[in-house]
Amino acid sequence: MKFSTASIALTTLALIKQASAYSALGVSYSPYTDDGNCKTSDEVASDLAQLTDFTYIRLYGVDCSQVEYVLNAKASSQKIFQGIYFMDQIEAGIETISDAISTTGASWDDFVTISIGNELVNSGSATVEQVSSYVSTARTALTSAGYTGDVVSVDTFIAVIDNPGLCSISDYMAVNAHAYFDY
């Protein structure tokens, strides 16, 4: 069976609305179109208008002006769980976030957490020691930029179980729990 992008989007939105009725508090957001290009500010605003029931919006990176666009479009009650995806661009990512805050008139209070990397140990991209170094580098740069909130690394449930050293790196444990894939 083949589904159109529109039918998938509508089904997803319906499921999101249904989930929000059961106190689902967060949603991951992607700033990309179906063909992989960056969404416009208006497209991001249109998407976020459908997500007002969610308290937290997770962004995995800082490309595509997504930080600026989401800061402009989110409801005042919403907070961003902001990711920095590329470990060789930690400082540049923090600068992008700071610039978006300045451009939009927002503040660091609009961010509930800054995550450094995503599933780095699970994917074999980094060791626990490397993740610790990345988070430490980010925490120092974020403090210098004026951020005082939580800084975390995110990995899979299985990676954390197999690598308990991940537990001491973050301000709290942030895991991607995949009911289907984590077996």
UniProtKB/TrEMBL annotation:
Q: Which InterPro entries match?
A: Beta-glucan_modifiers, GH
Principal place of residence: other
| The name this protein goes by in its record | Glycoside hydrolase
**Domain of life according to the entry:** Eukaryota
Q: Which residues cross the membrane?
A: none
Cell cycle as a keyword of this entry, yes or no, is no
Localization of this protein: Cell envelope
Alphabetized GO MF terms: glucan endo-1,3-beta-D-glucosidase activity
Q: Which GO terms describe its cellular component?
A: cell surface; extracellular region; fungal-type cell wall
Q: Which keywords does this Swiss-Prot/TrEMBL entry list?
A: Hydrolase, Signal
Q: So which residues are the signal peptide here?
A: 1-21
Of which family is this protein a member?
Belongs to the glycosyl hydrolase 17 family.
GO BP field: cell wall organization
**Entry keyword Signal:** yes
